[in-house]
Structure formats: structure tokens, C-alpha cells
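Data card: per-record layout.
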Amino acid sequence: MGASWLYQVLEPLPDSASAVRRARELVKAFTEWVDEPSSPEVGPAVTLEQYEHARRLFAFGVLTRRDADALPLDRLTELRRVIDRTGALRDSDPYRMIVELRPEFARLWPLVEEAGLQIELPGRITPPFDAGEEDTTTEAGLDRMLEAVGPLAFDVAWEGSLRGLPSAKLCGVQLCLNSVWTSQCTEPAPGTHAVYLSVGTRNLDVQDEWLRRTELNLGPAQAGW
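The structure for this 225-residue chain is written out next.
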């Protein structure tokens, strides 16, 4: 279990711009102070549209299974054939293949989705998504990330003090674009955008009343940050 609970704000968010706008509205409305945006994460790519966009931003990616199991190589003959023919393989083990993102890979859809695969992206070392050793960015830096991210999954957090709660630890706002929060992490969900309030577990005695007073339509508690 995480050290905070995340509560999804259940409102229509038809596109990424509306989700970003709502997340920033929540930061402004409910925080007394807030740190710079932290833990920006881009990817993985799971759809053909996402892969084509990723190729414009990243030189390589890591092919893995979404359930974290070993790669089912016996079912991926065509994938291995394309990788071998293009010389795109950089490194591999039973659970991953580090590959250059070649245009020839586009022909592997819908096989990639059907086999439960994804291509993790090296955002932490690739501008504009590199957030440095502190794993934070400025609002202007976040805007540059949002401008570049397109249809890719992306999530970022604003950690700060929620007005009226006694402890600020692990409180704040979580934004997920083309992804949703599951238990202590995000997972790809192309076309779905969500925002969450994070309430640190040091506020257990008062959080229910505080959440009620927000007058927001909130989803059930999920293990959070």
C-alpha cells in the first residue's frame, strides 16, 4: 500500500488540454503551497499512432510485456524477423529488447497490442522530458513537455499542502494523459485522461470530512504515491 490515497475527480475530460487545465485548476483551488511539477513520465507506446509519434522524439525504446512477464518469443516470429533484418537490436534479455525505433516496425501492429507488448521510452534522458537529478521541472518546462507529447501516455504530479489538512506529506494533484492510475502506478489507456487528488495517510482521521467539503465528485480510494 502506498503512503497516500489517490481519488479520481470524476468529471468529463474529453481531451488532454482539458485534463491539463483541470489539474492546474485543482492545484490553484486546493493547495496552500505546491512544489514544482515532479516525476514527469512519458510512454510507453502501445498503439501504432503512439509508436509513429514516438519515432519523432526518441531514437530507441525498450520492448516489454505490459504484465512484466517474459517476452513470448515463440509467438513473435515476425517481430524477430523484422528486428534481425533491420539490425535494430541493441541489447536483450528474456524480459526486454532494447531496439532502435525503425519505420519498419509499424508493420508489426496490431501484433504488438494483441500480444500485450509495449515500448517503454527513455524520457528521462531525452529532451524535453528530461527532468534532471531532482526529477522536477518548471511550469514552463512542463508546457514544453505537453506540447511535444502528442498522443503518448504522460503523467506528472504536483506535491504540496492541501488547504485544511494537518499534514502535507504526499498530498497534491496527479495528472494522467492517455493513461490511468492503478495501484501505485499508471498504465496506458489511449484516449483516456484523468486527474486525482492525493491525500497522505497521515490525514486519515480527517480526510473523509475534508474530501466531502471539496464538493467534488470523487472515485474510490486507490493506493497512491
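Known properties of this structure: The chain is about 25% helix and 30% strand. The longest strand covers residues 186-200.

See the next section for split statistics.
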